[in-house]
Amino acid sequence: MPQLNPNPWFFIMLLSWLTFSLILQPKLLTFTSTNLPSNKTLTTQKSSSWNWPWI
């Protein structure tokens, strides 16, 4: 059963993980998000209860 041989698959996984962590991840982290969090004050709105006819 050749799929149980981990030699080529482990190398491919290791190479792809290193590519992502060393090359792609720093490039992706340099992008700034378009929706930056703002310093808005949260306002709570008073909600009124519903008058259900069957209660």
TrEMBL record:
Keyword terms, alphabetized: ATP synthesis, CF(0), Hydrogen ion transport, Ion transport, Membrane, Mitochondrion, Transmembrane, Transmembrane helix, Transport
Keyword Mitochondrion: yes
Top-rank taxon: Eukaryota
Record keyword Manganese present: no
Transmembrane segments: 6-24
Entry similarity comment: Belongs to the ATPase protein 8 family.
Protein name: ATP synthase complex subunit 8
Gene (UniProt): ATP8
